[in-house]
Amino acid sequence: MTLLRAWLAPALLAAFAAVGACSQSDHAAQVARGKYLVTIMGCSDCHTPGGLTPHPDLTLYLAGSDADFIVPGLGAFTPPNLTSDKATGLGGWTHDQIVAAFTTGKRPDGRVLAPAMPWVDFAHLSKADADAVADYLQSLPPVSRNIPGPRASTSCSDPSVECIVRRPG
């Protein structure tokens, strides 16, 4: 019996270590898939300063826009900080809350996302892909950058159409 225990204990430890390594490897692959999806979905176009220009500020990648989306009758909306910062980003949100926001258009506080956010398109993501996007967003280093919430809009040159304007500052 002692010989069995002497052989079994190291074998079990090796098996658990292998499962842990696979789990870490699986998570890394999931985060890499999420990075790929965030890239092809164009998230940085709206959620990175200068993302709608030829010169985005990659030091603030996904840390919120410097542009306002003005929707007549609804107000001005600035794409928010998607980094893991707890105070100004998604750091206080759970994985499921992040997935729900970009696939159903509803934030944890119940507010519906602005019409410029293409959540209706993202609702068609597979569960695995939506989970990968959330895993990637949660892996981003925190960037403390406060972005204004929805507010009354300044006017566009044509008040009947949606417009995008660079926010001062």
List keywords for this structure.
169 residues, 3-stranded antiparallel beta sheet, mainly alpha
Question: What is the helix tally?
Answer: 5
Computed Rg: 21 Å
Order of helices and strands: HHEEHHHE
Taking pLDDT < 50 over at least 5 consecutive residues as the criterion, the unreliable ranges are: none
Strand order of the largest sheet: 2-1-3
Q: Note the main sheet.
A: 3 strands, antiparallel
C-alpha geometry:
globular
Give the terminus-to-terminus CA distance.
Answer: 73 Å
In terms of DSSP E residues, the strand content is 5-15%
Write a concise synopsis of the structure shown.
The protein has helices at 2-40, 43-47, 95-104, 119-122, 127-139; strands at residues 67-71, 75-77, 163-166.
Please provide a written account of the structure:
This protein is mainly alpha-helical. Strands 2-1-3 form a three-stranded antiparallel β-sheet, with no helix packed on it. Helices cover 42% and strands 7% of the residues. The chain has five helices and three strands, in the order H-H-E-E-H-H-H-E. It has one domain. The mean pLDDT is 87.
